[in-house]
Each structure stands twice: as C-alpha cells, then as structure tokens.
Design a protein that fits this description.
The chain is α/β, with parallel strands linked by helices and 380 residues long. It has 2 domains: 168 residues, Rossmann fold; 194 residues, Dehydroquinate synthase-like, alpha domain. It is 49% helix and 12% strand. It has 15 helices and 8 strands. The strands form 2 sheets. The protein has a 6-stranded parallel β-sheet. Strands 6-7 form a two-stranded antiparallel ribbon. Helix 7 runs antiparallel to helix 8. The radius of gyration is 20 Å and the shape is globular. It starts with 10 loop residues before the first strand and ends with a helix.
C-alpha cells in the first residue's frame, strides 16, 4: 500500500426528508446564490423544499447550468456573484450543476487575468473560493463529496478538470426521493459513471492495498445489483438509496487512497464530449473496454480479480465482456457508431490535440497519443 494523506471535510446528510436540514446548516447571515440546471427542480418539488428551508434568508437564484457546464454560463453567474456580493453558493442538481457551481465559486474570487486560468492550471492558481454546499438530485459524478470539477469551453471545444481544497462542499444533502422523477437515460448514465469511477481506481497495474480492493469491489457489486432494479423501479427507495450512496462512495477520494489510479478513459472521454457533445457516461462506456484491452497485460491480474469477485467469470477478457454486457443491460451503447461518430475522424482529432498538449495517459504513463488513437479507432 502506498503512502497517503486523506481528509474529506464534506458533511453528508443522507435520507428521506433531509432537505429541511439546510435551515441549520447554512449560515443565517449568508447572502446565498441558489444554482440549478434546466428547471426540473421546479416540477419535482425540490425547489419548494429548498426555499422552505431557506425561508427568511437572503437568496438569489441562477438557473440554466447545462449538462457539461460551460465556462461561458458559469462566468455569467460568477459575475452576478461579484455584483451582488454573494458569499455562499448552494447547488441543487446533479454533477453538472455542482461542477459548474464549484467553478463559479472559484471564478467569483479570481483576481487578474483570464479566469480560464483556473482550468488551464488545473486549479493551481486558486487562492480562495466562495463556500458552497449541495443538494444532490442526480447521483453520478461524486462531485457532492470531492474537490474536483469539469468545465467545458464552447469557443475552443475544450473540456478540462480543476481541483482545489476549497471545492469540497461544506455539506451535501442526499435524499434519494429527489431522484424518483429522473429520466431513465440519466439514471443509466449515473450508474455507468459511478461504475467507471470505481474501476479507474481499481482496475490498474497496482495489486496491493487489499482493503481498498475489497471496498471497490463492494461498490461495484452494489451497482451491478441495484442498477437494473433502480432503472426498472424508479420509486424503489432502497434501490435508489444504494445507487445514490454508491455514486458518492465511488469518487469521494476514499477508494483511491494508497493505490495508483488510471483516468485515461475519462481524459479520452472528455475529448469526445468536447468534439461531439456525447454525454459523459456515454463516452466512458465506449472507451473503457478499449483502454483495458490496450493495457491488458498490466491490468490482467486486477481484471481477473474483478471478473471473479464481481461478475463470477474467469479471465480478464471475460471480465471486459461482462462489463460491456452490464452496460448493455442498462441500455447503454458501447460503440462510437451507436452515437453516429466516425471513429477514424475522432481518433485523428484527439491525437492531434493530445500531441499538441504533450498528453500521455494511464497509470504507467505509457498511453501515448498514437496509442490513444488506436484505442479510439478500436471502438468504431
């Protein structure tokens, strides 16, 4: 097991009816900006619950944060924070709203220069951020309990990541009932996203850290068991609760302690989203099997272990096939052609970008741009 230094300051308040707890968790004198996405919280009663909990407080609202939140939209909200002297952010939504709100929190305090510097330096330039908290309505990204954020820039077709200690939410409300009205494709995406978060930290060349491996396998087993159920039975509270908590556990930092992580699938997937607009989880489901096969020798032991312990199959290739079958069972395609994307064209564009950036991926830093191109073409 490798050395690690782990601290997660986010307070998790989990369960039915917990939105009311906001009253006690947000400072009474805060000037709050409430952020959300397309407005579904207006239809499912979540907005009413949040506003009831904030009754008598100083609250502004900003809606319209997109799936794959954009720099342009988030800068508009950050400028609002500056003008109105907002000093606390409350994100109500899924990972996109939360990621966007994290960028808003950083950009509102950014001094001098282009705020895109936050992304181009992966957060290294951040000196301070506005405090933020979340009410999670779409389990998927784990952003409600980690310090990372992913933002897209329309003008340059880029999708980049930043992280900072200030991006940890002060608290996150996780009420599974807020997910009951989600469209099936968003639930599907959330299950796949959480699954891939786990294996990016688990299915690597690192065969140490037995406990971390067992924890990861437990999350994977739970997702494999509850994923189909929660899709088939949207108001099954227990299934939604298991799904919601699994998605948080998948990327709250715990599973990655003491082990090496990969993240090549995510980095390649970000480019597919930037160039073609695919949903994040859709890109992961396409690229993951290709990355695994490209590094099969290094990952063989862990894939065999996953196959045996999670899916009950023998061999690394069987584990990859079982993973694809699991995705298909959720209604998730695993080929670029399923999304109308030309694999050869996508490979050329991504290779050119990675070569220009000097990007090398994988836990062994051996997935060169040329090899990335081969992975992408293999997923035609």
């Amino acid at each position: 097991m490798r050395n690690f230094n782990y601290q997660n300051p986010t307070r998790i308040v989990f369960g039915r009816g917990t939105i009311a707890k906001i009253t006690d968790l947000v400072p009474a004198d805060a000037r709050i900006l409430l952020t959300y996405g397309g407005g579904s919280i207006m239809q499912n009663g979540v907005h009413d619950q949040v506003m009831a909990a904030l009754k008598g407080r100083d609250v502004l609202e900003y809606g319209g944060i997109e799936p794959n939140p954009t720099f342009e939209t988030c800068m508009d909200a950050a400028n609002l924070c500056r003008r109105e002297k907002v000093d606390y952010l409350l994100a109500v939504g899924g990972g996109s709203v939360i990621d966007g709100t994290k960028f808003i929190a950083a950009a509102a305090k950014h001094e001098g220069g282009d705020p895109w510097e936050i992304m181009s330096t992966s957060g290294a330039c951040i000196k301070s951020m506005l405090p933020l908290a979340t009410v999670l309505t779409l389990p998927a990204t784990g952003s409600e309990a980690n310090s990372g954020s992913v933002i897209s820039r329309k003008s340059t077709e880029e999708k980049c990541v930043f992280g900072s200690p200030g991006a940890y939410p002060r608290f996150s409300i996780l009420d599974p009932t807020t997910t009951f009205s989600l469209p099936a494709n968003q639930v599907r995406n959330g299950v796949v996203d959480a699954f891939v978060h786990v294996v990016e930290q688990y299915a690597t060349s690192d065969n140490g850290a037995m406990l971390q491996g067992r924890l990861a396998e437990g999350v994977l087993q739970t997702l494999v068991e509850c994923g189909p159920t929660t899709l088939a039975e949207p108001e099954n509270y227990d299934a939604r609760a298991e799904f919601m908590w699994s998605a948080t556990m998948a990327l709250n930092g715990l599973l990655g302690q003491g082990v090496v992580s990969d993240w090549a699938t995510h980095m390649i997937g970000h480019e597919l989203t930037a160039f073609y607009g695919l949903a994040h989880a859709e890109t992961l489901a396409v690229i993951l099997p290709g990355v695994w096969r490209a590094n099969l020798e290094a990952k063989c032991t862990k894939l065999e272990q996953m196959g045996s312990r999670v899916f009950g199959v023998d061999g690394a290739e069987a584990a990859i096939e079982a993973t694809e079958s699991f995705f298909h069972g959720l209604g998730m395609p695993t080929r670029l052609s399923d999304h109308g994307v030309d694999a050869a064209e996508a490979a050329t564009r991504i290779v050119e970008r990675f070569e220009a950036r000097g990007t090398v991926l994988g836990e062994g830093k051996d997935l060169t741009p040329v090899r990335v191109g081969e992975v992408v073409k293999s997923r035609a």
